[in-house]
Design a protein that fits this description.
Structural class: alpha/beta
Strand content: 15-25%
Oligomer: single chain
Strand order of the largest sheet: 1-10-9-6-2-3-5
Bound molecules: 2-phosphoglycolic acid
Order of helices and strands: EHEHEEHEHEEHEHEHEH
Number of strands: 10
Helix content: 25-40%
Radius of gyration: 17 Å
Number of helices: 8
Distance between the termini: 22 Å
C-alpha cells in the first residue's frame, strides 16, 4: 500500500489539490484525469478555472473521464452538464477529449461495458479524483458494492438520493445512476480522495482505519496497488489520530 495522507487548512486545500493535478500534467500533459461531481471538489474546480482564466496554465491537453452520472435525468441535472460548466468548458477541454458516462437506462448494460472497454483501450486513467460520500461511497458505489465491481447501473440509497436532492434544492431527486466500479477506480495509476468538512470526519476515520469491507466502499482504497493520496481539510481530519495512521502504515506528512 502506498497511501499518503495530507491535511491542509481550508484556504490552502484547493491549491494543494491543484498542485497534485499539476504534478501529473507536468509529467504528462495529455494525462487522463477522472473528475467527480459534488460539493467537495468545488474549491478545486474554482482554482483550476482561476488559473486557466488567468492563462497561467493550459489544461486543454488533458483527457477527462467522468466518474458517474445520473440516469434519465433532465440535461440541467446531469453530472455531464455540471462538469461541463464547472470544469470542461472553462478549462477548454474539447468534448472529443472527454469520456462521458452513459446517461440513459435503455441499453445501460451494454453502454457501461463499452465505457469500461474504451477506458481500458485508451490506456486507462492516470489520476482518478474522488469525493467521499457520507456513507462511505466512492463514485456511486454505495455500501454493499464489492471490490470487483465494474462500471454499471446502480440504485442510490435513500441517504444519497436525499443528499443529492438537497444539492438541487429538492428540484431533482436522483434514484438511478451509472458509476465506475470499485475495480475500475482501483485500476487508475494514481488516486486522489478529496475530503472537506466536519460532516465527513467520522466516515473518513472509518474509511482509513476501520475494517476494509464493502460496507464502507472507500476502505477499498487501502487495497490499491497504485499510489493513493487523501487530501483532507482540518475539519474532515479532526477525528484522525496521526499516530494511529502512522502505525497503519500511512505516510503522514501532518503539518
Ligand atoms: P459531496 O459528495 O462532495 O457533495 O459531499 C461526495 C460524494 O457523495 O461522493
Amino acid at each position: 500500500m502506498s497511501l499518503q495522507f495530507v491535511v491542509a487548512d481550508s484556504e490552502a486545500w484547493a491549491a494543494a489539490a491543484v498542485a497534485r493535478i499539476e504534478r501529473v500534467l507536468t509529467a504528462q500533459p495529455a494525462a487522463c484525469v477522472g473528475f467527480p461531481t459534488g460539493r467537495t471538489p468545488q474549491p478545486l474546480y474554482g482554482e483550476l478555472r482561476r488559473r486557466a482564466g488567468a492563462a497561467r496554465r493550459k489544461y486543454s491537453e488533458l483527457r477527462a473521464v467522468m466518474l458517474d452520472e445520473y440516469l434519465d435525468a433532465e440535461a440541467r441535472f446531469q453530472s455531464w452538464t455540471w462538469l461541463k460548466m464547472e470544469v470542461f468548458d472553462p478549462l477548454r477541454i474539447d468534448g472529443r477529449r472527454i469520456r462521458r458516462m452513459p446517461q440513459r437506462s435503455a441499453g445501460i448494460g451494454a453502454a457501461c461495458g463499452q465505457f469500461e472497454r474504451a477506458l481500458q483501450e485508451s490506456g486507462g486513467c492516470d489520476l482518478q479524483l474522488l469525493g467521499l460520500g457520507a456513507n462511505g461511497h466512492i463514485g456511486f458505489n454505495e455500501p454493499g458494492s464489492a471490490a470487483g465491481t465494474r462500471t454499471r447501473a446502480v440504485t442510490l440509497t435513500e441517504a444519497t438520493a436525499g443528499a443529492n436532492a438537497a444539492y438541487w434544492q429538492g428540484a431533482f431527486t436522483p434514484r438511478r445512476a451509472a458509476t465506475m466500479g470499485i475495480a475500475t477506480i482501483l485500476q487508475a495509476r494514481e488516486i486522489g480522495l478529496l475530503v472537506r468538512g466536519v460532516a465527513k470526519a467520522g466516515i473518513l476515520r472509518r474509511a482509513l482505519s476501520g475494517e476494509i469491507s464493502a460496507e464502507c466502499p472507500a476502505s477499498f482504497l487501502r487495497t490499491a496497488s497504485a499510489p493513493v493520496w487523501v487530501l483532507a481539510d482540518r475539519e474532515a481530519a479532526c477525528r484522525l489520530d496521526p499516530k494511529v495512521l502512522g502505525t497503519l502504515g500511512y505516510n503522514v506528512p501532518w503539518p
